[in-house]
């Protein structure tokens, strides 16, 4: 599902964020990417979204060689990838329903599809009762659920999560992890960048550790350190 | 399809609302620019009308040597008749010439009393031309040339026997054409400058709109919205601004025509004025200019913002 071949990413200011990284993540896997700040976790996620291009090496996502897909096809690649961030990135002037519907609307989905899928996915993430609330009326955990619902509503093959529990207390974080696990169980490949040690240790999933841009550990059923 | 349209227009409307003051500034600049642009077109149209009216029934006088030798009138008349540009020829003998002279200076007795018309004013052949610009056919046929005298003054000399000189309108015509060109070029230059600032302002409005909505745009990109899906609402927004400006400009031009031009109608003779249909004929050009402004503004305004 995701494959990196000797990928190096050097930014224009000369900083090398990733160096000779090779990875192979299968369909349906759940993978933690861990490491201190500046170790290259976010760069990895940006590469997978083709927000950045690898300086050297090849990146494959969902069977596509990213360096070879043309600019105008990038949006179609991203429709197969859901993304969740630490700061939720919800639109404050839209309700829960509208925030999730927005993701379908802007890729041109029909109204009847939206009216069917949005309540369905919100029910799935446990927000079936809060369709008409605005983000500032929701708790942090609930907002992150909306953001996960938005990432999953188009049924992506891959879910990328960049520090999804970074702003949440431990109990809420556990709830979010249960939800991500649930998403993973229906076949979605999940890649989660984090430095939340407790969560990584509790989940016992594959752990890829980055340090200064290099893979220093790749362990199935691993722990944080 | 309907859903897509609905989406675009909803996004455009909310963009305009959010961006109200700046959108208004862009619209007014577009209005002023397009108004001046239309004005330039109307001014050159007006000059076309005037030149046409003045030169359409242009009459050239071919003065004959005094006294007229036997066959001169018939010979010269034949020569002029052979020219395609000449539509009509009339011979003004001394009687007609003096009648015209008396009419012309009816209010100035000094000229009538002090001048012996029959002795001083030569007889002439009056030729009507269908195209004033072809005036030089006449001088060529009669072999007339400007010569510089010893004292430095210019004098026309015609080789054709019996012909004294030909009244020359070319200098007047040239001047009229130059005035027209300068005026419409001047107004067009101002209009171009204004169109340039309209482009800059509309582009800036779009950019501010995109900046205000950068979070939305960021999310749209992440979930895989195509570039066009993101751009079109902004393009429509720019188009709405310039087209509103264009509509106001056309309205203002009609207003100018009613308030200023129509007041002059009938007061000046031999001076044709632009009509409603002339203003209407300018309208499509204003709309096209508005669309061009919007497209260029869109291209400039969104260039930096929308790399994937």
Tell me the distance between the termini of chain B: 25 Å
Our count of helices of chain A gives 7
Query: Would you tell me the overall average pLDDT of chain A?
Result: 93
E-strand count of chain A: 10
As residue ranges, the low-confidence spans of chain A are none
Bin the helical content of chain B: 55-70%
Rounded radius of gyration of chain A (Å): 17 Å
Largest sheet of chain B: 4 strands, antiparallel
User: How does the overall form of chain A come out from the CA principal axes?
Assistant: globular
| Quaternary status | heterodimer
Strand content of chain B: 5-15%
Number of helices of chain B: 11
Can you describe this structure?
Chain A has 225 residues and is an alpha/beta fold. Chain A has a domain at 89-155. Helix content of chain A is 32%, strand content 27%. Chain A is globular and about 45 Å long. Chain B has 308 residues and is an alpha+beta fold. Chain B has helices at residues 2-18, 20-56, 72-81, 94-104, 109-114, 117-120, 136-141, 170-212, 214-222, 227-264, 276-303, and strands at 59-64, 86-92, 124-129, 144-148, 154-158, 163-166. Chain B has two domains: 2-53 and 173-303, no CATH class; 59-168, Alpha-Beta Plaits, CATH 3.30.70. In chain B, the strands form two sheets. In chain B, strands 2-3-1-6 form a four-stranded antiparallel β-sheet. In chain B, strands 4-5 form a two-stranded antiparallel sheet. Chain B has eleven helices and six strands. Chains A and B meet through helix 2 and helix 3 of A and helix 1, helix 9 and helix 10 of B.
């Amino acid at each position: 599902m995701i494959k990196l071949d000797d990928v190096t990413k050097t930014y224009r200011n000369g900083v090398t964020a990733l160096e000779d990284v090779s990875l192979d993540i299968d369909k349906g896997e759940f993978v933690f990417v861990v490491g201190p700040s500046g170790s290259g976790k976010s760069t990895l996620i940006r590469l997978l979204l083709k927000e950045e291009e690898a300086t050297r090496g090849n990146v494959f996502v969902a069977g596509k060689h990213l360096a070879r897909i043309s600019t105008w096809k990038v949006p179609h690649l991203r429709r197969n990838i859901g993304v969740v961030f630490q700061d939720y990135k919800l639109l404050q002037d839209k309700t829960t329903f509208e925030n999730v519907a927005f993701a379908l609307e802007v890729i041109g989905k029909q109204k009847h599809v939206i009216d069917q899928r949005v309540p369905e996915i919100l029910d799935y993430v446990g927000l079936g009762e809060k369709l008409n609330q605005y983000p500032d009326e929701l708790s942090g955990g609930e907002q992150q659920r909306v953001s996960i619902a938005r990432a999953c509503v188009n049924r992506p093959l891959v879910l990328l999560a960049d520090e999804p529990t970074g702003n949440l207390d431990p109990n809420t974080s556990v709830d979010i992890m249960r939800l991500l696990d649930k998403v993973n169980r229906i076949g979605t490949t999940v890649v989660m960048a984090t430095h939340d040690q407790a969560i990584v240790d509790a989940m016992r999933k594959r752990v890829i550790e980055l340090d200064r841009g290099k893979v220093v550990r790749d362990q199935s059923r691993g722990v944080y350190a | 399809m309907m859903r897509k349209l609905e989406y675009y227009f909803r996004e455009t409307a909310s963009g305009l609302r959010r961006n109200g003051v700046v959108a208004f500034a862009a619209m007014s600049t577009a209005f002023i620019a397009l108004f001046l642009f239309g004005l330039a077109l109307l001014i050159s149209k007006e000059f076309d009308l005037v030149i046409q009216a003045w030169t359409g029934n242009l009459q050239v006088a071919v003065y004959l040597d005094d006294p007229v030798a036997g066959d001169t009138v018939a010979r010269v008349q034949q020569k002029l008749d052979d020219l395609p540009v000449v539509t009509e020829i009339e011979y003004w003998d001394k009687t007609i010439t003096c009648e015209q002279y008396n009419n012309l200076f009816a209010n100035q007795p000094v000229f009538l009393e002090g001048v012996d018309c029959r002795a001083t004013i030569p007889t002439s052949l009056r030729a009507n031309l269908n195209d004033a610009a072809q005036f030089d056919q006449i001088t060529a046929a009669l072999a007339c040339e400007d010569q510089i005298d010893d004292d430095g003054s210019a004098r026309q000399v015609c080789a054709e026997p019996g012909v004294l000189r030909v009244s020359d309108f070319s200098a007047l015509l040239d001047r009229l054409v130059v005035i027209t060109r300068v005026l419409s070029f001047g107004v067009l230059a101002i209009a171009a400058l204004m169109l340039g600032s309209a482009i800059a302002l509309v582009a800036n409005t779009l950019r501010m709109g995109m900046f205000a909505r950068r979070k939305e745009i960021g999310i749209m990109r992440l979930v895989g919205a195509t570039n066009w899906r993101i751009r079109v609402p902004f393009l429509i927004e720019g188009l709405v601004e310039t087209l509103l400006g264009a509509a106001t400009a056309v309205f203002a031009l009609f207003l100018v025509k009613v308030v200023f031009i129509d007041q002059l109608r009938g007061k000046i003779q031999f001076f044709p004025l632009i009509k409603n249909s002339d203003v209407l004929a300018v309208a499509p050009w204003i709309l096209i200019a508005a669309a061009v402004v919007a497209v260029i503004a869109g291209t400039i305004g969104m260039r930096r913002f929308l790399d994937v």
